[in-house]
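Consider the following input, taken from an annotated entry for MurR/RpiR family transcriptional regulator (Thalassospira indica).
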Amino acid sequence: MGLQTDLREKLISDYAKLSPQMQKAARYILDHPNDVALRSMRALARAADVPPSTVTRLMTAIGVETWQDFRDHYQSRLLDQPASYARRARETQKTDNDVDRDQHLLESICRTEIDNISAAYSSDLVSRMIAACEAIENARQVFIVGRGAAYPAAFQFAYAYRLFCDNGVLVDGHSGTFGDELRGIGRRDIMIAVGAKPYIRDTVRAVEFARSQHCPVIAVTDSDVSPLAMDAHCKLVVRDISQSFFQSFTAALSVMQALVALLVARGGPKALQRIAAAEEQLAVFDTYLED
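Applying the prediction step yields:
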């Protein structure tokens, strides 16, 4: 394990013990590692909205002597990465020509979303997705929760999953049944929680309740230190960068779809038989319009 990875893991493992200001700086560093490589310590502190002394105390807390030592490790990481689509996307906004503005904005959105999805399929995240599938396969029940803008990703997984498995529970709280849908959750189950900042209270409460019942959590979220990811069995941290006023859930949705595809691929003939049976049932109800 490289030192940069060690530093990242140290920030995550010590996060709960840090002061609120140091937590703020640690979260910014975890979520924006390239800024450590490219900015001065004062510029990083400004971006994280903390005093420079907070960054200094944070480095001391994780055993780093100087800012240059800290930055060197992040610069080495950056050199190993391909050119960022997001950086090129920002370049497309540097125009004063109103005629080309809309086209450039759409190109910027496209490149940013491509970058979000590409980052979600790094070797580290791929191995974590495989581990998540193994946990899902061994679970008695699979509880899926995602509120607000994360709901489409949660629903997509739940709907597709129930086409070949009958142990999925979508925790959506219709008619005030949010708490009821978590009844009986325990250590033999698994919860998949989807969410990004600002976090929906219901999702956080569901995750906290799952933890209290010793149910492992698979967190599909935007940070290693999000309230969904803390103490999670498996963290699938995806980017939510957007050129709009609202965060993007494209990568989260892609990961949820990928989990379904992996589960089907690993499910063998039994999964195929169940999908065929589900299609026959849908046909009975004349669900889909036929040409």
